[in-house]
Amino acid sequence: MKKVVALAGGVGGAKLAWGLAQILSKDELTIIVNTGDDFTHLGLDISPDVDTVCYTLANLANPETGWGRQGESWNCLGELKELGGPDWFNLGDLDLALHLERTFLLQQGWSLTAATKYLCEKMGVVHVVLPMSDQQVRTLVSTVERGVLPFQEYFVKYHCEPTMTGVQFQGIESAFLSEQASTALKECDIVIICPSNPWVSISPIIEIKDVKSILSTKTVVAVSPIIGGKTVKGPAAKMYAEMGIVPSAAAVAEQYERLIQGFVLDIVDEDQMQQIRQCGIIPFAVNTLMSDNSTREKLARETLDFAERIKKV
Ligand code: GDP
Ligand code: CA
Questions:
Q1: Do 123 and 260 reside in the same domain of the chain?
Q2: CA-nearest residue, atom 24 of ligand 1
Q3: Of the residues 231, 267, 269, 299, which should be mutated to test ligand 1's pocket, given the most ligand atoms within 8 Å of the CB?
Q4: Which of 27, 108, 144, 289 keeps 20 to 30 A from 190, CA to CA?
Q5: Residue with CA closest to ligand 1 atom 19
């Protein structure tokens, strides 16, 4: 039996994780998710990327946005606005229930890993979803216009408009992988870095103690979140440009250079294959846009087959 770990952020990561989950059993696939986006809002502990992955795997996600719940209502948020409360973060009524229950569990002393496992069971998620750490890691985005912003303020309140000058992960030095995440990573054969934002979704996971050294013993394949120099959604391309790097699939491959052996890029970026080869990475070009369930599953299968082919012996 092969064992695969997928590293994921939110929307892009969740889509490939869903595809992988159609192919691999719960004993074969574990998904480790970024928690750098987590924050406390209105007294609630919110884990946006973990929730996006869980809702997607449970087939509960809103297909239009990729995040949040399908069939969502917004009564509470509307009333909160009337009351003059902070209404910048989109909290639907169904989504709120999850945050209430998670916050309650954490207040009872549960770890985020245990709370996620419990909530996954309740939502009917079959595969194991693990927050990257049970310690608090908080992504902070340094910006020209608004100074240092907690990630959700940068992302949601200011719509990623401020110019990024850097990113830091507060608490990362004292965070460690949960026992479950550590075991899953150590026991797996293949690690797939999902097409998530390299700056703020994948970096926090990779920067956790021991992750790089465990990855160095595995076959690691990344899927590009950049297609034709653009992001499908979100600020990744803008972040590359603001950090002085021309956004491209090759730029993503170079960022992961010391971590990966294989890189899946889109057919439209085929001309970058030579550049990627020169970094010592094996490129593989396919259609990487996951516009529906069948393209999610197809990309997952192609990525898995590619990883098998280049697997370290
Ligand atoms: P977030 O945490 O919700 O921002 O989501 P992620 O970090 O997991 O994913 C954001 C990235 O996913 C963006 O850079 C998108 O370009 C990428 N993405 C979204 N959908 C797709 C897709 O269908 N194919 C590929 N290759 N990338 C995608
Ligand atoms: Ca995210």
A1: yes
A2: 289
A3: 231
A4: 289
A5: 12
* Domain shared by 238 and 223, yes or no: yes
Strands of the chain, DSSP E: 4-8, 29-33, 39-41, 44-46, 128-131, 138-143, 147-150, 164-170, 190-193, 219-223, 226-227, 230-231, 262-266, 282-286
Residue 233 Cβ inside 6 Å of ligand 1? The answer reads yes
Substitution site in 37, 67, 206, 233 for ligand 1 pocket (most atoms within 8 Å of beta carbon)? 233
- Number of structural domains the chain divides into: 2
Co-location of 183 and 159 in the same domain:
no
Mean pLDDT by 10 residues, the chain (313 residues): 94 98 98 98 98 98 94 98 96 98 98 98 98 98 98 96 98 97 98 98 98 98 98 97 98 97 98 98 98 98 98 70
Alpha-carbon span 156 to 153, nearest angstrom: 5
Q: Residue 224: which domain range? A: 4-137+173-312
Can you give the pLDDT at residue 1?
A: 74
pLDDT of residue 233: 92
In terms of Cα–Cα distance, which of 185, 189, 188, 186 is closest to 310? 189
Q: Are both 109 and 98 inside the same structural domain?
A: yes
Distance 309 CA to ligand 2 centre (A): 31
Q: How far apart are the C-alpha atoms of 125 and 7, rounded to whole Å?
A: 17
Give the domain CATH number at 270. Answer: 3.40.50.10680
Same domain, 121 and 168: no
- Smallest CA-to-CA distance from 237 within 185, 160, 301, 308 is with 160
**Alpha carbons 302 and 121: distance in angstroms, whole number:** 29
Q: Among the three residues 172, 188, 216, which one is the final residue of a domain in this structure?
A: 172
Statement to judge: residues 163 and 290 lie in one domain:
no
| Res 303: pLDDT | 98
- 255 and 291, same domain (yes or no): yes
What pLDDT is stored for residue 312 in this prediction? Answer: 65
Give distance in angstroms: CA of 282 to centre of ligand 2.
28
pTM of the model: 0.98
